[in-house]
Amino acid sequence: MIRPKLSLRRPLALATGLLLGVAGAVAFAAPASAHHPEIFGAGCELDNGDIKVVWTVANSEKDWDAEITQISSPSGATVTGLGVGTKLPKLSSGGPAPTGEQTVPAGQNAELTVTAFWDKKREDVTNTRTGRAKLKGKCEEPEPEPTPTPTTPAPTPTTPGPTPPATTPPATPSPTPSVPEPGEATFELKETCDELIIIIDNPADGEAFSIRFQSEKGVVRTLEAIPGQVTSVSFDAYEGLTVIANSGGEEGPPVRWTKPEDCESGGGGGELPLTGAAAGGIAGGAVLLLAAGVVLFVVARRRRVTFTV
């Protein structure tokens, strides 16, 4: 199963996007009853104990726009930027998912419940989902800007002074050449009839890093990205296999393994290429869900990586 290529800034964000891309593909293959809003939240704790949350609400459908008809939170705190009537663009449009901000009082659950409506001409669909924000510790305080020091104007001379000698302007220093960024690492996800395989191709000038993957049964695999080498980890495939990525203490969302269609007919269980309109729809969905996932896992480390699924 071949998925689209994207560029991110950190191994966990990359793994998160990879898993979200798989989740997006599964969502598109589901029946009409699978229509639902996708809710993501990233929060941090303020000095007074309140929780500041950024919510993102996406559309699960690639062919139909949706509209929020109800939105609520256990704390009752107002969500700025999201509300009844907010449009959720279809995945194939490539448009960004709407976002909103909320300050949840200390001790209250940082949750958001959204009901969305799809007008499908021949039938109307309504579905409700609840999402919980992932907390990332204390909120970072912005550094205060330095206060400029007032300058005292020079006194005006009563008599004209001597004409100063002409000065030669200082030579302009040559700009310091910028240091090139490290090479891009390429991730690839393969689903076969027997295994779920995660592969990384790290160029010789890439950075070394590692990502920890764990199944719902507690099976752990650590993927080491070694400059100049291709490395991989795999999980034995079975119904219900769910894998979560973890890097630096931050977790990505869980995703289930999907059996390839040719397994039913006794096929070899290799990769399933996607072409044509179906591939375009899945690619668009994966891109949008990945954009929503990034909101949850933006971090300070600056590096360039690319994944292919």
From TrEMBL:
<feature type="signal peptide">
    <location>
        <begin position="1"/>
        <end position="29"/>
    </location>
</feature>
<feature type="compositionally biased region" description="Pro residues">
    <location>
        <begin position="145"/>
        <end position="180"/>
    </location>
</feature>
<feature type="region of interest" description="Disordered">
    <location>
        <begin position="87"/>
        <end position="110"/>
    </location>
</feature>
<keyword id="KW-0732">Signal</keyword>
<keyword id="KW-1133">Transmembrane helix</keyword>
<feature type="transmembrane region" description="Helical">
    <location>
        <begin position="278"/>
        <end position="300"/>
    </location>
</feature>
<feature type="region of interest" description="Disordered">
    <location>
        <begin position="123"/>
        <end position="184"/>
    </location>
</feature>
<protein>
    <recommendedName>
        <fullName>Cell wall anchor protein</fullName>
    </recommendedName>
</protein>
<keyword id="KW-0472">Membrane</keyword>
<feature type="compositionally biased region" description="Polar residues">
    <location>
        <begin position="100"/>
        <end position="110"/>
    </location>
</feature>
<keyword id="KW-0812">Transmembrane</keyword>
